[in-house]
């Protein structure tokens, strides 16, 4: 038994040893095969055997087989970013400018949901941010549910990286697409005739691709080449271009915003001109949603706070650096550099040095890219547009300006040449030339750039600034040397058109910086270390405004948009506090210039090309003088005010000022023939009579009593509609009343005004003077260069509004202004605010106070009686004219 057990045990032991000998090699072999056949990860499969261009930075970018892949760190989830689009190259800059940012940046964040990386929109200008300071928990809960972040795009996760700290997803279709929210075409560019054409662009995806990729510590850039075929339809009907190929390289910048906003937002004040942004607040101390308005400004903060407190000049933590395009003509660069640096004078007064810095485009900096919104650039646009503009972008969380650009179109120099000639050639021989000398060019470009950089610093236009100075001051060499033409370079008070030929050593230009400019920078950029919150800053800011309140040099006059100008003290392209006196001096100068046109220019303009252009500018300048004066009729002095301020919201322009304005303009129109100087116009392009064109255009404004009626309603001592129409009768029918032969100009005025009287006298006649006045204003703006439209272009009313809105805001006035928010149409005009507001001033649609049909009917009767009395006197032309007037009146009476 024991032997049997021992034998079995021995056999089992032998079998076990045999198994060990057999299994071990098999196991070893399997182990070896496992090592050689290790499974590739999804991350490795993406790149295996493919050429991968990698850029490492805040986000790692992969360009592989025509695709752009983001390797996105999971630590960046829910970090807020700005996504901006900048044109970096284009086949025709009439469609958009190199450096132009057509749309405001998108405010976004990325967040992973399951296997999809979502791009969410944090805020936009159409969805105003709202926050709550209420202690009510139910409000907080309601806001969590009702105010979310919509998903804009979703990107399927392709893989995690090796240590699972980042995910990879494909951004190609997003970045190589026709995304309307990142538009690349300027709808108001020269190619569309500044908005007159409708663009229909077909995106050609098969011809579009990812071009360059860059990644840095706080931003990434992807440049895509996008191709289109476009049709341009004038008035939406006539094809100006058909299936025209266009290729654009557009840079998409993803800029990482700081986790916590760097700058404390500053509450805006409507009595000083800063661009603004809004947030709504639900608060326990206010019934209803409260609107908070903040000033757009840079984060200028002292490096050494204690030294700043002691009043020492200190460096800022972050200077504002502009890079100047190397494409600019070399002769322009000196004035451009100076235009940036002049603002240091204002910052030095509030304790900062070297805030403004300027450099040429660097040649040896691999990170520099003018299309990246990390860089502030002054861009040259080689295109025939007489303009410049200075837009900027903000961090929507705190209204901090984070990027700004200046665009200088080539023909801005032509605009300067025109203005210098028609406004100052009577005293300055240097400007009587098609090519300005270097010293004039330098001072002119310095002004243009400093004005646009002012916009980039957050400053709006101050069109009321030049009203601070008396007319005669502009002929005083001592006063002009100290002050220049205006207290603010943010005004459109270009050059001294009041100075007469006999005036010597009178300054003709705006100041380097004006008193208001220093004041505005003090309000916007002074640091108050004691204030720890936005609300705690308000008393300090209020004291700055109160210290200058009542002094016209520090008054902020809003820009006026729309089809009417109600405040004659806040006009563009005017100087002095009396438009009639200034206009009389200006017109005297225009006559002098016109008389010397050929003498000055025969040897410089042999083919009359320059004179042909200048003559149009001279005519436009004359019309500007008339319009500036006419703005007083039914006008108001308008201000924003708080309790205790010395200004009222609105005060009617004094009676005598309105009356003088009517007499000035009508007498000018009666004696307008000088502008058709035969010695000049005989050599120019044949274009009919400019004087007759002006007569017909201005006559449409003469009988608009709505403004006068409203002013008289607000102030019983004001110029009344009765006196207004009496003056029209007395002045325009003066020759008829005195039985003197009327001039041809008078006959035209009498005819045009009579037709207007009939329209107003008959309550059944369709009233269209609103549209006519609007059209006349905008058409004139187009011809004067204020509004860039082709001359003699008759656009539909809505398109004129659209173009006017865009060019007054984007062209020069508006940086960071949401055009849709401010834009008003004829059917939705705003009232002048009776409370603090930050809007522009628009025309008031006033019908209820204009009940003057009886006055028009009485005026018609008086005209009929005097014409009946004189119908058989005078020359054949005069008698025929009177018979025609009577036939118009008789036809009206029969039709009743």
TrEMBL record:
The keyword GTP-binding does not apply. Gene3D superfamilies: Collagenase (Catalytic Domain) (3.40.390.10). Residues 128-303 form the DUF5117 domain. Residues 435-737 form the EcxA zinc-binding domain. Pfam families: DUF4953 (PF16313), DUF5117 (PF17148), DUF5118 (PF17162). GO terms for molecular function: metallopeptidase activity. Residues 1-28 form the signal peptide. Residues 41-89 form the DUF5118 domain. Keywords: Hydrolase, Metalloprotease, Protease, Signal. This is Zinc-dependent metalloprotease.
């Amino acid at each position: 038994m024991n032997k049997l057990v021992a034998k079995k045990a021995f056999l089992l032991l032998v079998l076990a040893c045999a198994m060990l000998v057999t299994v071990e090699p098999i196991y070893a072999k399997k182990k070896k095969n496992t090592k050689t056949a290790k499974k590739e990860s999804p991350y490795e499969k993406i790149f295996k055997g493919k050429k991968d261009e990698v850029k490492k930075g805040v986000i790692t970018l992969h360009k592989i087989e025509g695709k752009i892949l983001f390797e996105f760190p999971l630590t960046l989830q829910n970090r807020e970013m700005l996504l901006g689009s900048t044109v970096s190259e284009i086949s025709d800059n009439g469609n958009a400018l190199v450096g132009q940012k057509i749309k405001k940046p998108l405010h976004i964040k990325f967040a992973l949901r399951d296997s999809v990386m979502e791009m969410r929109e944090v805020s936009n200008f159409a969805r105003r941010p709202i926050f709550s300071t209420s202690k009510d928990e139910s409000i907080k809960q309601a806001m969590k549910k009702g105010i979310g972040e919509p998903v804009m795009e979703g990107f399927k996760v392709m893989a995690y990286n090796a240590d699972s700290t980042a995910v990879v997803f494909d951004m190609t279709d997003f970045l190589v697409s026709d995304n309307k929210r990142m538009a690349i075409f300027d709808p108001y560019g020269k190619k569309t005739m500044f908005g007159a054409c409708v663009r229909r662009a077909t995106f050609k995806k098969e011809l579009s691709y990812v071009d360059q990729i860059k990644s840095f510590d706080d931003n990434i850039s992807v440049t895509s080449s996008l191709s289109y075929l476009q049709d341009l339809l004038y008035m939406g009907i006539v094809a100006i271009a058909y299936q025209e190929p266009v290729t654009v390289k557009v840079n998409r910048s993803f800029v990482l915003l700081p986790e916590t906003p760097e700058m404390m937002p500053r509450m805006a004040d409507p009595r000083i001109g800063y661009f603004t942004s809004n947030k709504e607040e639900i608060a326990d101390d206010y019934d209803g949603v409260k609107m908070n308005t903040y000033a757009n400004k840079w984060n200028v903060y002292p490096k050494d706070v204690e030294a700043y407190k002691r009043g020492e000049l200190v460096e800022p933590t972050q200077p504002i650096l502009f890079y100047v395009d190397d494409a600019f003509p070399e002769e322009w660069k000196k004035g451009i550099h100076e235009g940036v640096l002049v603002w240091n004078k204002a910052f030095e007064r509030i304790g900062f040095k070297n805030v403004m810095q300027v450099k040429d485009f660097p040649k040896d900096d691999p990170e520099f890219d003018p299309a990246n919104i990390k860089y502030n650039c002054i861009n040259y646009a080689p295109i025939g547009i007489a303009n410049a503009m200075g837009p900027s972008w903000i961090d929507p969380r705190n209204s901090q300006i984070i990027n700004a650009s200046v665009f200088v179109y080539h023909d801005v120099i032509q605009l300067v040449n025109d203005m210098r000639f028609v406004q100052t050639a009577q005293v300055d021989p240097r400007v009587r030339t098609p090519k300005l000398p270097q010293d004039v060019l330098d001072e002119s470009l310095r002004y243009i750039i400093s004005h646009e950089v002012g916009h980039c610093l957050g400053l709006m236009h101050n069109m009321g600034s030049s009203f601070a100075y008396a007319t005669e001051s502009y002929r005083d060499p001592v006063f002009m040397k100290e002050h220049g033409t205006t207290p603010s370079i943010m005004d459109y008070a270009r050059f001294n058109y009041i100075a007469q030929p006999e005036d010597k050593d009178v300054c003709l230009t705006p100041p380097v910086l004006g008193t208001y400019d220093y004041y505005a920078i003090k309000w916007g950029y002074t640091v108050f270390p004691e204030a720890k919150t936005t609300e705690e800053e308000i008393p300090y800011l209020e004291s700055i405004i109160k210290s200058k309140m009542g002094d016209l040099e520090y008054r902020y006059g809003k820009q006026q948009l729309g089809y009417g100008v109600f405040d004659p003290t806040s006009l563009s392209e005017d100087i002095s506090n009396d438009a009639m006196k200034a206009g009389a001096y200006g017109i005297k100068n225009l006559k002098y210039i016109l008389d010397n046109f050929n003498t000055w220019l025969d040897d410089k303009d042999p083919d009359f090309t320059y004179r042909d252009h200048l003559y149009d500018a001279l005519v436009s300048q004359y019309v500007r003088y008339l319009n500036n004066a006419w703005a007083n009729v039914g006008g108001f002095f308008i201000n924003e005010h708080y309790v205790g301020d010395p200004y009222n919201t609105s005060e009617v322009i004094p009676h005598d000022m309105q009356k003088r304005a009517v007499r000035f303009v009508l007498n000018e129109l009666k004696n307008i023939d000088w502008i058709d100087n035969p010695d000049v116009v005989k050599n120019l392009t044949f274009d009919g009579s400019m004087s007759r064109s002006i007569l017909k255009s201005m006559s449409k404004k003469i009988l608009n009593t709505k403004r006068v009626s409203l002013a008289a309603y607000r102030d019983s001592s004001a110029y009344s509609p009765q006196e207004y129409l009496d003056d029209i009768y007395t002045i325009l029918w003066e020759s008829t009343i005195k039985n003197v032969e009327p001039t041809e100009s008078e006959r035209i005025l009498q005819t045009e005004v009579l037709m207007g009287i009939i329209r107003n006298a008959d309550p059944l006649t369709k009233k269209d003077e609103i549209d006519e006045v609007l059209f006349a204003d905008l058409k004139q703006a187009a011809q004067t260069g204020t509004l860039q439209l082709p001359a003699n272009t008759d656009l539909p009313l809505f398109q004129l509004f659209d173009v006017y809105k865009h060019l007054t805001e984007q062209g020069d006035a508006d940086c960071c202004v949401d055009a849709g928010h401010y834009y008003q149409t004829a059917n939705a005009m705003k009232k002048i605010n009776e409370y603090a507001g930050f809007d522009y001033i628009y025309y008031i649609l006033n019908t209820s106070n204009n009940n003057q049909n009886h006055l028009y009917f009485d005026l018609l009767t008086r005209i009929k009686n005097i014409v009946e009395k004189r119908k058989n006197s005078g020359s054949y032309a005069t008698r025929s004219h009177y018979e025609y007037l009577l036939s118009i009146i008789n036809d009206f009476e029969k039709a009743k």
